Amino acid sequence: LSVGPGWTSARVKALLCVWADCNIRERLKSTLRNKSIFQEMARQVQRKYGVIRDWKQCRTKYKNLKYDYKIAKSAHAAGGSGAGSLGKYMKFFDEVEAILLDKGLENGSMEMHKRLYDGELKAGRQETPAGHTGQIISSESECHCLFT
To answer: Lower CB count within 10 Å: N or C terminus of the chain?
Structure first.
């Protein structure tokens, strides 16, 4: 289990995979009082990825990712288009944008999981929150990462 302080890349990936879930995205868009949604997200990042975070930590990271996205977007716009990608302004920019704009996430969590972990699998390694090697099992509705 991944317990320590801070949000490592692996922990952010776990949160992004859960946030990408269609039901979570829709509920976050349509609900103002969203404590229960973040409680569910905290349960899922623990159950599926072994990341232990409470609902407040998940909500804070979610808000920070959205804020960083907006700042990166405006910094890029101010700098004009052309050289360089938005990735230089914010890690996981493309993933957050996909979630916020519902782009390419018809399969929700499974699609996000492919984005975040496939490159690492092709390279022969996978970073997981616990630092173990991961085995990915997918179903039609979602993708689970089982750590060995």
So the answer is: C
Query: d(Cα 126, Cα 116) in Å, to the nearest integer?
Result: 10
Query: Which residue type sits at 67?
Result: Y
Residue 92, domain member (yes or no): yes
Instruction: Say which residue the tokens 């996978």 belong to.
Output: 126
Of 20-24, 39-43, 124-128, the least confident: 124-128
Cα–Cα distances (Å) from 133 to 15, 27, 61, 75, 93, in that order, read 18, 32, 25, 36, 25
Q: Residue 2: inside a domain, yes or no?
A: no
Give me the domain span that covers residue 54: 9-147
pLDDT tens readout for residues 64-89: 999 999 988 887 777 655 445 554 56
DSSP 135: E
In a domain, 112, yes or no: yes
Whole-number Å distance between alpha carbons of 101 and 145? 25
Calpha distance 53→9 (Å, rounded) = 14
3 lies in a domain?
A: no
Angle at which helix 55-79 crosses helix 9-19, to 10 degrees, equals: 90
Which residue has 């991961």 as its token pair?
134
